Amino acid sequence: MSKKLTSRAENYSKWYNELVVEADLAENSAVRGCMVIKPYGFAIWEKMQAELDRMFKETGHQNAYFPLFVPKSLFEAEEKNAEGFAKECAVVTHYRLQNDPDNPGKLRVDPNAKLEEELVVRPTSEAIIWNTYKGWIQSYRDLPLLINQWANVVRWEMRTRLFLRTAEFLWQEGHTAHATKAEAITEAELMNNIYATFAENFMAIPVIQGLKTESERFAGADETYCIEALMQDGKALQAGTSHFLGQNFAKAFDVKFTSKEGKQDYVWATSWGVSTRLMGALIMTHSDDHGLVLPPNLAPNQVVIVPIYKNDEQLDAITEVVNGIMKDLRAKNISVKYDNRDTYRPGAKFAQHELQGVPLRIAIGSRDLENGTVELARRDTLTKEVVALDGLIDKVEGLMTEIQDTLFNKAKNYRDNHITEVDTFEEFKKVLEEKGGFISAHWDGTAETEEKIKEITKATIRCMPLEGKIEKGICVLTGRESARRVLFAKAY
Amino acid sequence: MSKKLTSRAENYSKWYNELVVEADLAENSAVRGCMVIKPYGFAIWEKMQAELDRMFKETGHQNAYFPLFVPKSLFEAEEKNAEGFAKECAVVTHYRLQNDPDNPGKLRVDPNAKLEEELVVRPTSEAIIWNTYKGWIQSYRDLPLLINQWANVVRWEMRTRLFLRTAEFLWQEGHTAHATKAEAITEAELMNNIYATFAENFMAIPVIQGLKTESERFAGADETYCIEALMQDGKALQAGTSHFLGQNFAKAFDVKFTSKEGKQDYVWATSWGVSTRLMGALIMTHSDDHGLVLPPNLAPNQVVIVPIYKNDEQLDAITEVVNGIMKDLRAKNISVKYDNRDTYRPGAKFAQHELQGVPLRIAIGSRDLENGTVELARRDTLTKEVVALDGLIDKVEGLMTEIQDTLFNKAKNYRDNHITEVDTFEEFKKVLEEKGGFISAHWDGTAETEEKIKEITKATIRCMPLEGKIEKGICVLTGRESARRVLFAKAY
């Protein structure tokens, strides 16, 4: 069924690309840089969506839907935002194709169907949404406005990789409006917190919450909060961002409100998003040379049961027992799939479920029936044990928590062991080269130094962590004063 | 809060447009023909999505995601499909904007960033999906392939109306592949059945299942099944379609499979979809001059509770009782919202919930607390009654079913009373003019006659019903032989 994957040690990047395709998560499409998310990969994304959506709604947010297209005149209204996205956007210029007179059977753009104003396919929706909010916000009674959108966006990236960086990707984008600056900042922090909670409790990925430097901020934001994760190859991955947008968009789109006291003021804004990029983080944090490893909280099938039989009579007897197990597991909200396909042998099924990261496999053969046992195989540890059918449900329930915790702790140990404090640039380069991970170093706070370090080492400032001690020091590159350590890393 | 709506009798079309905006369902955007779906409207759509998604998954379908863009060369591969959609598609020709040297602060398309091949924003995804299926299908073991996608699509319609016909709309599109023609036809019928069940059980809209005539078929289909509903103004609305695509796309994209017997053959296909257009059907079927009327099975809030109080002490006492009611209603899976906003008076809240179609309103005042009563107001019948707090939960639970049934039966009575058999063209025109609705008439089976009737009366053949007697007769227009009656109507 599946060919052996390239090992991580041999070629991490190749391992990732092969795994994504072989585990049936996604594949490249006929459209440059755009991916097809296959059913198994999409089922994981759906589980992520469901949890995030629940968390958004529990904190008072509502979903809505805004247009895919942004007229050029709106796109360019907030200058920094426009500048940030203009270089990589898909532009609709025509609204019709016609038969190509020079190529029978082929079509061409109809030159008479040129749009008066070009439409940008949304790379992010602040412009179209703030233009809409102008009509929705008049008074303090209309605030706060807490809205989220699940949507596709397009950024014309030149170098793409499945899930990590694609021309079209799926995401959610929250866009909120507030009466005060303080409330908007609290919102931006709250949503970054929700992302961190989601990453840790569901994805089993430890993250560092922090602030971006000015040069790494979202185009149009006054402050960008982020969650940063560390992959197994020592590279960091920005897993989510939450922006305090100040009054930038309110001013660009003239969105004012009347306060209780009858005073007019511009509205304060946030936006925040996570995308299918999270799939890349999930894969690269836990998976191994055998394939995908999924935390139970996001696995489409937490348990798979494979019958081992020689004839229909044996299969029938096994199936009867399996039906009882499935009923009991489902009663405990554990998702289970019975893989009784007769077109594949058990060995091929085992290989597929291992490759696809099903947390727990249960195999039941005729001898098991006689002995009142089943065989359990954990995907995370690749260990097997024979256990009694009696007590199986509690055992499996316990394992779901144990596997989830094991994955998180393993990732956290790795991450914690890969945060290195350095005080010289030599050390900086040596650690980056030999060990990778986050480097905690002093920086003089200038964009020039940040850029120079990036040029020399390819490491960027991932964030200024929100937690931990703030100590003064001297910049590793320039020797100038530094107000605090920041985290550097090479990043996806 | 809300201005009075134009009445249906005065101007049905205006009534609809006003209602959609006033009830906070959707509004027009800055992009020609594209709508913004507002949070309340989107919450209804989310309920529809959840139910449909459950029904699709229960019948073995999986979700996936395919690219937004279709390269022109793929778009034109299936000739009829291309011809059907070429005239109204958005075309991406460039991938970058740049500063406009002639207009400081403005952007323009970068002439150096022209795509080698134009990309069509998907009007439907058969082309991109069948090009993908080519890589997924080799053997009978890969079949059936049962995939659905929730997505946005763009059709450059010239005359648009909120929900009913918009340039961008949201929908689901199922795309399945099968080993045999019979299996594909069964699938197309199954999905049309699911649409009918959903429409009747959740939307409370009676529908007629039927087949489209050749001229009304989906471009590229061999057969199109549909569900047709009737609106209150006597016009029909196509609420969903399910297509048997034959081997047309398999041939256009060269998708073959090897059978168990080792024989190669092209794959058989279906596609099927419903869209945000359903929102239009829902609104126009049940709503009245006071605003939206929602069936309980799709209402974001099935019950709203409004406290009537003069001071905080009264409010606290009411709130305590309300908390108990909410807990008990939620335990019965009845969604309830406590509208305790202090920025609006009870009258304004009543008006808003009436306008927004909340099925049941409960008002509780201080005197109610003394008497152990509450006031119930049904949105469908606009009737009020005072009932005992004791037994309230069961009463509300019963009303949810009763309101759902009442709406369906009312719509069904109207629909059934508006199917008229006619045998002459004079009668045809008279009924169409004076009564509207479906006209069951004989037709000679030719596209010419169909077109001519459309030209004269604006009525089209909505479908050839799957159920009911098949009787021969003579065509109302030409007097030629007719194999069966078909249903004509003016339609949205």
From TrEMBL, chains A, B:
The keyword Protein biosynthesis applies. It is an enzyme of class 6 (ligase). SMART domains: ProRS-C_1. Residues 27-295 form the Aminoacyl-transfer RNA synthetases class-II family profile domain. Transmembrane segments: none annotated. It catalyses: tRNA(Pro) + L-proline + ATP = L-prolyl-tRNA(Pro) + AMP + diphosphate. The keyword Nucleotidyltransferase does not apply. Its main location: cytoplasm. Its EC number is 6.1.1.15. It is found in: Cytoplasm. One of its GO terms (molecular function) is proline-tRNA ligase activity. It holds the Pfam family HGTP_anticodon. Keywords: Aminoacyl-tRNA synthetase, ATP-binding, Cytoplasm, Ligase, Nucleotide-binding, Protein biosynthesis. Consists of three domains: the N-terminal catalytic domain, the anticodon-binding domain and the C-terminal extension. NCBIfam families: proS_fam_I (TIGR00408). Homodimer. Belongs to the class-II aminoacyl-tRNA synthetase family. ProS type 3 subfamily. Catalyzes the attachment of proline to tRNA(Pro) in a two-step reaction: proline is first activated by ATP to form Pro-AMP and then transferred to the acceptor end of tRNA(Pro). This is Proline--tRNA ligase. It comes from Olleya marilimosa. The gene is proS.
